[in-house]
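Lab notes, practical 5.
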Amino acid sequence: RAFKDKGNKLFTNAFIVSGYSFIEGKDKIEKTCAILAEVRGHVKTIAADILKHKESEYTFKTIKSLRGIGDFLAYQIAVDIGYWNKEVFDEDKFVIAGPGCKAGINRLFSDKGNKSYENCIQHLCSIQNEGFKGINIDMNKLFSDRKEKRLNLMAMENCLCEISKYLKALNNEGRPRNKYHKV
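Output from the prediction step:
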């Protein structure tokens, strides 16, 4: 509270929508602290469990089983855990489309058929070589800092989210949460 009272921003745009209705408390700070306290009580058990299973989807589902943690937040936490241990979560083996990504996919696919949003992300990853070639981009040069010269599932999910924001701003749709300036 002291940090916020000094005029600092406590939550970013990524935290605008959260499932706090089941938590007692007067505001977002109090409710967030209550969720964190509850989650902290499960950390040792969950850590042991996901280390035993070492499977990305299992890690995601285990985190999602915690009260107050929805699909996208569970996915983001799993991705962060994967930075520590790729055996527990690999961002190129499992993906969850967040709200911004879904909006980006809806803009890119006039008809996604029976594909889930996650299938669309996988499809875009599988055809990215042709896409980059089609606009004369050398993937080896673009991804020179990476072992694998391509976007993985998580990076594609992030790109689709950004695309939806940029197109929304470009087309003057709604109220962008951030201001973008033409260069």
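Observations recorded by the TA: The longest helix spans residues 117-134. The chain has a mean pLDDT of 89.
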